Amino acid sequence: MSHPLKEKFLRNATFKKLYEEQYRVLYTELLAGGAASGLLDDLVAAYKLNDKADTAKVDAEAKTLRTFLQTRAEALRSDKAITGS
């Protein structure tokens, strides 16, 4: 996603290198490593502890979010900021 301020900073080679290193770390930990999915699982489990929890609705919404996370991980896998090329 682009933003004028982000683009301004990315024109600086030192900042761009640091940005891309941290982007790879976040991708590896959150998406490729499954941390985001694990957090989603924890949130769903905690929500279901509520007496009036709409478990069908939360399961459906969680499924949508899991699909998004998987799609995003796959799309970023070949991104030049992730591959380093």
Index terms:
85 residues; mainly alpha; 5 helices
What do these coordinates show?
Helix 3 (35-47) runs antiparallel to helix 4 (55-77). With 85 residues, this protein is mainly α. The chain has five helices and no strands. It is elongated and about 55 Å long.
Rg over CA atoms: 17 Å
What percent of residues are in strands? under 5%
Look at the helices and sheets and give the structural class: mainly alpha
Number of helices: 5
Assembly state: single chain
Form type? elongated
Largest sheet: none
Percentage of residues assigned to helices:
over 70%
According to DSSP, the number of beta strands is 0
Q: Give the end-to-end Cα distance, rounded to a whole number of Å.
A: 19 Å
Rounded average pLDDT: 94
The unreliable regions are none
Give the topology string: H per helix, E per strand.
HHHHH
Task: Produce a short descriptive summary.
The model has no long low-confidence stretch (mean pLDDT 94). This protein has 85 residues and is mainly alpha-helical.
